[in-house]
């Protein structure tokens, strides 16, 4: 479990660094990054929800 936490922390730090670089270079704004991350979170939530729902019986 400890290894997974460290891997997630590393991933989060990498995403933060990439995001900061994109903003610094004028590629994206903080708002655009927030919107993109929100969309990704909703898509992941939707995929997780559909994965655990039992199939419909007809």
Protein model, in words:
By secondary structure, this protein is mostly helical. The protein contains 2 helices and no strands.
The number of helices is 2
Residue stretches low in confidence (pLDDT < 50, at least 5 long) are none
**Which oligomeric state applies?**
single chain
| Main sheet: strands, sense, barrel | none
Radius of gyration over C-alpha positions, nearest whole angstrom: 16 Å
Mean pLDDT: 90
General form: flat
The total count of strands amounts to: 0
Structural class: mainly alpha
Distance between the termini: 41 Å
Strand percentage: under 5%
Which percent range fits the helix content?
Answer: over 70%
**H-E string:** HH
Question: Which descriptors apply to this entry?
Answer:
single chain; 58 residues; mainly alpha; 79% helix; 0% strand
Topology:
Elements: H1 2-24, H2 30-52
Task: Give me a quick take on this structure.
With 58 residues, the protein is mostly helical.
């Amino acid at each position: 479990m400890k290894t997974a936490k460290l891997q997630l922390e590393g991933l989060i730090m990498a995403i933060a660094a990439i995001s900061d670089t994109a903003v610094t270079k004028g590629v994206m704004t903080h708002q655009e990054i927030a919107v993109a991350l929100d969309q990704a979170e909703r898509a992941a939530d939707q995929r997780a929800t559909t994965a655990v729902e039992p199939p419909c019986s007809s």
